[in-house]
Amino acid sequence: MNTASLQSASTLPTHLAGEMRSNHAGETGAVWIYKGVLAISRDAEVRAFAEHHLATEETHLSFFEDWLTSRQKSLLLPLWRVSGFVLGAVSALGGRSWVYASIEAVETFVVKHYESQYAALESFGDATLMAAIYQFCNDEADHRDEAGDEVQGQSGLLKAWCWVVGAGSEQAVKIARRI
Fold first, then answer.
1. Domains in the chain and their CATH numbers?
2. Which of 21, 46, 122, 169 sits most deeply, having the most CB atoms within 10 A of its CB?
């Protein structure tokens, strides 16, 4: 997506600047989730799924990389990379069902996170930014739904893992909004 027609990121109100910082951090983590899956999984179906979704997440990340100033990006990007990689790698160690369930858990949170920004984006009034966030949210919903279609039931341990993934995503956003 072209960032040339966007208002300068430096004009963002404080609340939206924090949201965009958390979006950038989240897309960083998402890229690294798929890199973690690809580092571990030898399952051709899982690898194709991860490669396809990695390309989308890299597009989202590129948008924020190109638009936000260095001062507006999270200072904890190394942590988001490592956390994403570990989440993807652990999921891949658990096999196909763990990968799909983990992605469904992450994307369920991400869709709600993006949707929570709609009113503030509308008030800000940048149509290009609104269109980008809406598109990203739709992409994440597609990822969630595609993964969810593959989930074949969850054991107690996998349910607990998915709860940790969702709760961890929520905490990461809270931190990334500020740091």
1. 13-176 (1.20.1260)
2. 21
